[in-house]
């Protein structure tokens, strides 16, 4: 069994709980429950962002953000034959959806469905060569047309059905993006007791559809410093050159230098590096060529603000087999905690 210090049971609960963009209700309940035990105040805004605040000894404030939403779908049509068609919420590669089980969240309860895949030997050459798209996906719910339309409504939410398990030295399942970082944030909130600065632990919404929750929240709480947590690409698998790995599992938490949406403040990422080295925490640098995170959401609102980001290296992003190394999860929690513990509000992040 892998050696790690974190609460796997809570990580499993967070990743297996549903919460697509704009409908993060179920996972939000878990987050509120966990924050209320460790912070001075918990509040939720009109978009659904949750903020747990630990009051510090100064007026200087730090926002730590991790998003609650997972990529999923909304029902757009139920055919006369009883098959359900979907509209994507977030960035899906339709190739990974074949032969997967899903959960449709209806007003009367959850309904299981499958995205079927016809036997390959029955496909024509044209069907074999066709590019997969989400709009062409059909969910089989095992009902005839009339019963299906009575059970499933347009607008119902759909998530992938998958459990989170230990696999060697890794954890694997759905929605590690970004529940593993949400978990790391909650773990840090549990450890922080008497900070010099006020810390806002923010669980944000609608990141997967445009960083919407963080952008609004950055305006509302107006922090002096923001640190976002998200997963990052680990293409350390066969088929990729070393220079394209971005990060590698087991090499430590990742300190972001840039992604497709943000260039982090050099003084912030250098201080993250210095804290990691002084505490003996394994780390690696992250240069992500595409994709965005809540880091940019905080940087773009309410004036120029210093931002940094810590990432959990993760293989197979935006699939149901996302995988992270347990040591990297521990390192992420350790670095975030040490960084917040050492933040006095007196560091000069201006350039």
From TrEMBL:
Annotated residues for binding of Zn(2+) 2: 177, 208, 318
Name of one Pfam family that matches: Peptidase_M42
InterPro entries with a match to the protein in the record: Peptidase_M42, Peptidase_M42_aminopept, Peptidase_M42_dom2
UniProt-annotated catalytic positions: 207 (proton acceptor)
Region Disordered, residue ranges: 109-131
Keywords: Aminopeptidase, Hydrolase, Metal-binding, Protease
Gene Ontology terms describing biological process: proteolysis
Cofactor comment: Binds 2 divalent metal cations per subunit.
Cofactor: a divalent metal cation
Annotated Zn(2+) 1 binding sites: 67, 177, 230
Record GO terms (molecular function): aminopeptidase activity; metal ion binding
Family affiliation: Belongs to the peptidase M42 family.
Name of the protein described by the UniProt record: Peptidase
The organism of origin for this protein: Halogeometricum pallidum JCM 14848
Lineage: Archaea, Methanobacteriati, Methanobacteriota, Stenosarchaea group, Halobacteria
């Amino acid at each position: 069994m892998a050696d790690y210090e974190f609460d796997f049971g809570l990580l499993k609960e967070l990743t297996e709980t549903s919460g697509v963009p704009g409908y993060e209700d179920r996972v939000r309940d878990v987050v509120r429950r966990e924050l209320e035990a460790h912070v001075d105040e918990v509040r939720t805004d009109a978009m659904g962002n949750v903020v747990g605040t630990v009051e510090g000894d100064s007026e200087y404030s730090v926002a730590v953000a991790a998003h609650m939403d997972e990529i999923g779908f909304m029902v757009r049509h139920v055919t006369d034959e009883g098959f359900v068609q979907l509209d994507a919420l977030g960035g899906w590669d339709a190739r990974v959806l074949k032969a997967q089980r899903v959960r449709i969240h209806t007003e009367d309860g959850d309904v299981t469905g499958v995205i079927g895949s016809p036997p390959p030997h029955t496909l024509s050459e044209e069907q074999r060569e066709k590019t997969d798209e989400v709009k062409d996906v059909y969910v089989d719910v095992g009902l005839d047309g009339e019963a299906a339309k009575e059970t499933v409504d347009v607008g119902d939410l759909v998530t992938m059905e998958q459990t989170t398990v230990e696999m060697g030295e890794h954890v694997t399942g759905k929605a590690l993006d970004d529940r593993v970082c949400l978990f790391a944030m909650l773990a840090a909130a549990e450890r922080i007791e008497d900070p010099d600065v006020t810390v806002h632990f923010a669980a944000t919404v609608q990141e997967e559809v445009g960083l919407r929750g963080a952008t609004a929240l950055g305006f509302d709480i107006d922090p002096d410093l923001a640190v976002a947590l998200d997963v990052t690409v680990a293409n350390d698998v066969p088929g990729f050159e070393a220079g394209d790995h971005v990060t590698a599992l087991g090499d430590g938490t990742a300190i972001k230098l840039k992604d497709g949406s943000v260039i982090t403040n050099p003084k912030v990422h250098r201080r993250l590096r210095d804290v990691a080295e002084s505490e003996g925490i394994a780390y690696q640098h992250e240069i992500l060529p595409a994709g965005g995170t809540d880091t940019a959401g905080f940087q773009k609102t309410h004036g120029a603000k210093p931002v940094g980001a810590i990432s959990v290296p993760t293989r197979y992003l935006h699939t149901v087999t996302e995988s992270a190394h347990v040591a990297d999860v521990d390192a992420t929690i350790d670095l975030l905690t040490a960084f917040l513990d050492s933040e006095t509000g007196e560091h000069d992040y201006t350039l």
